[in-house]
Structure formats: C-alpha cells, structure tokens
From TrEMBL:
Protein name as annotated: Ionotropic glutamate receptor L-glutamate and glycine-binding domain-containing protein
Organism: Nematostella vectensis
GO molecular function: ligand-gated monoatomic ion channel activity
Membrane topology recorded in Swiss-Prot or TrEMBL: Multi-pass membrane protein
Highest taxon above the source species: Eukaryota
Lineage: Eukaryota, Metazoa, Cnidaria, Anthozoa, Hexacorallia
Length: 207
C-alpha cells in the first residue's frame, strides 16, 4: 500500500493490464558499475529487459536518463525547511529614516569634511594676497560657512563670498563632489520610500 501502489492500480484500471510486482534481488535503486560495465538494482532490471516499469521515489541524474526514461514527477518531498526572518529596513515611525540611504560613517565623513573645508577656506582667504585682509575687509568663519552653503545648495545667504581664486577653486571642487553625493542620496532615498513593509505569516517551524 502507498501512493506509488495507488498510481499503479489506477494505471492497471485505465490501461487494462495486470502488473506483477517484485523486489529486485540486490534491493538497490541502480548504480553503474564501471568494472562490470553494467547497471545494478532496478535500473539494471529495466536495462536488461526483466522489468517494464520501476515504481519508486527515484533521483533523476544525467547518467540514468541516458539509459531509462523518467515520468513526470508526481509529487515532490523535502525534509528540510529553511526559515529566514525578514524585516523591513524602512518604517513609517522612524524619524531618522531620511539618513538611512547613507551609513553613519559617510554622514560623519561628510560633516567633518564640510567643517574642515569652511576653516580651510577661511584661512586661505585670510592669508591670500587676493583675500579680504589685503583689501581692508573682514571674511569671518560665518561668511565662509555661508559661502559654502550658497555654493553647494545654490542659495544666497550672504553677500560676502571668498575673494581669492584658490578659495573659490576649493569650493568648486567640493561642489562637484557634493553634486555626485546628492544624486546618489536621492536615488537611494527613493528605494527606501517605495519599500513596503511585508508581514510573513510563517514565524517558525511550528507554523
């Protein structure tokens, strides 16, 4: 009795024949012996013509398919289940979700670079012969920060800007790098915004 026998009984009824069931002598599925150059087990009986049909749970392989024909699989059985808990990386209650497109190290590096750049441009313009110091004007750290913001974000926060060519060139290079950074951030942010939280009904092996 069993699923395989039920299939055989239905074949007997539909095709009107009577099958003789027997077990192979070596009780093997079938392995090719390279020394004897022949198959053993059920495949050996099929190849030698002693049987017309082998009814069992068989593993298909290219070597076996070269000598016998396999029917379509009636059912599949797996005795191993792998369950991986999946959590959405974006939630509607995350107030700092806008920072997730970039990692913490990248945000720290960007802020640190901006602070260093503000101070560096302020020093360059202060000691440059083309700066405000030599024109009896003052270029403060606040002016340097405003100049950086207006260069990167294209907004005018203050009329005082860096005067020396070296300081302006430094801002131009930083602005080009920031343009690439903003484009990457926008693309990653869109991925997080369109991501939906998926709930999985299976939580463990008991389900």
């Amino acid at each position: 009795k069993g699923f395989a026998i039920d299939i055989l009984m239905n074949l007997e009824r539909d095709l009107e024949f009577e099958a003789e069931i027997y077990l192979v002598e070596d009780k093997k599925y079938g392995v090719y012996d390279k020394k004897l150059k022949r198959w053993n087990g059920m495949i050996g009986d099929l190849v030698d013509g002693r049987a017309e049909l082998a009814l069992t749970s068989f593993e298909m392989s290219s070597a076996r398919q070269d000598v016998i024909d396999f029917a379509d699989a009636a059912f599949m059985y797996h005795d191993r289940v792998i369950i991986m808990p999946v959590k959405s990386s974006y939630t509607s209650h995350d107030w700092f979700g806008f920072m997730k497109p970039f990692g913490t190290h990248l945000w720290v590096a960007f802020v640190s670079t901006s602070v260093v750049l503000v101070i560096m441009v302020w020093l360059i313009d202060m000691y440059s012969p083309y700066g405000y110091k030599h024109h009896f004007q003052v270029f403060t750290l606040r002016d340097s920060f405003s100049d950086l913001s207006s260069t990167v974000f294209k907004i005018n926060l203050d009329d005082v800007t860096a005067r020396s060519p070296s300081a302006r060139f430094t801002y131009a290079v930083f602005s080009f790098g920031t343009l690439i950074l903003i484009s990457t951030y926008t693309a990653n942010l869109m991925v997080f915004l369109i991501e939906k939280k998926v709930e999985f009904p299976i939580s463990g092996l008991h389900d």
